[in-house]
Amino acid sequence: MTSFWSGYIIVLTTITIIGTVLLLFGNRNRPADSQAKTGHVYDGIEEYDNPLPAWWLYLFVATIVFAIGYLVAYPGFGSFKGVLGWSGVGQWENEVADAKRRYEPVFAAWRDQPIAGIAADPKAVRMGQRIFANECSQCHGADARGAQGFPNLTDQDWIWGGDADTIHTTIVNGRVAAMPPWGDALGEEGVRNVARYVQSLSDPQAAGAQAAAGAAQYAMFCVACHGPEGKGNPMLGAPNLSDTVWLYGGDLATIEQTLRAGRNGQMPAFGQTLDADKIRLVAAYVYSLSQ
């Protein structure tokens, strides 16, 4: 906080407290038996301008005293941090440190085990599932079955590889998959032909003259990543086009859109978000889903 805004808050808060005190006690200067009236009349009833009852006044005073005490003890009076030295960040750090101390013996039991071995421990899998629910379910779903654009983690189809160590690497570093747009290079007719050929790789009924015409263009533009048979390449994150598992959809219109505009999927890196022990538990849970 800059000195200007700190001073602004201090002055505004001070004026507010002093003004409240003056307003409160300024209305106690009349005698208790005063018959002064406000001039407000409704339905024949005149409103008297009497002072506040004593108990009500003292209640207001108590709130003012509490406010001053709070500003002395805790942050809130400009950049003054309070005599107790409390801060939201400090409390969070203390709670994190306390949680680490409490769970250290639990995590230590699995720290030296391979992830595939951790996946065989029901207790570890349950802990990994809870972490997954907090960090991963927003994209992959609570049941980890994914959605359009978000991979299903419960089957045997893996874009980058489904062994335990690769899953761990994916969680730590994230993944960036770039399918370039080929609309300009292929033209609309080429997009339709290649889409039909790609569809024929997993659906022989889609084969025909249009698919045959797209085969040559596939060999020119797509084979470097997806391979001559469309089996994909986990090293590049290029998906297998010869099965019936589709990340964005396998209907003709969706394949055409993928070819025309490309796809840019991104899995965020959790290496800076989760500690190493939690990442291993999540990796073990995800690994267990497809085993």
Give structural notes.
The chain is built from 12 helices and 4 strands. Helix 8 (183-202) crosses helix 9. A hairpin with a 2-residue loop joins strand 1 and strand 2. The protein has helices at residues 3-26, 54-73, 88-108, 115-118, 122-135, 137-140, 164-173, 183-202, 209-221, 223-226, 252-261, 276-289, and strands at residues 37-42, 45-48, 175-179, 263-267. The radius of gyration is 34 Å and the shape is elongated. 54% of the residues lie in helices and 7% in strands. It has 3 domains: 3-73, no CATH class; 91-174 and 269-289, Cytochrome Bc1 Complex, Chain D, domain 2; 177-267, Orthogonal Bundle (Cytochrome Bc1 Complex, Chain D, domain 2). A two-stranded antiparallel sheet has the order 1-2. The protein is mainly α and 291 residues long. The two termini are 53 Å apart.
**N to C succession of SSEs:** HEEHHHHHHEHHHHEH
Rough outline: elongated
User: What integer value in Å does the Rg equal?
Assistant: 34 Å
Strand content: 5-15%
The CATH C-level name of the largest domain is Mainly Alpha
Q: At CATH's second level, what is the architecture of the largest domain? A: Orthogonal Bundle
Let me know the number of strands.
4
Which segments are poorly predicted (pLDDT under 50) over 5 or more consecutive residues?
A: none
Structural class, by secondary structure, is: mainly alpha
Task: Trace the largest sheet across and list its strands.
Answer: 1-2
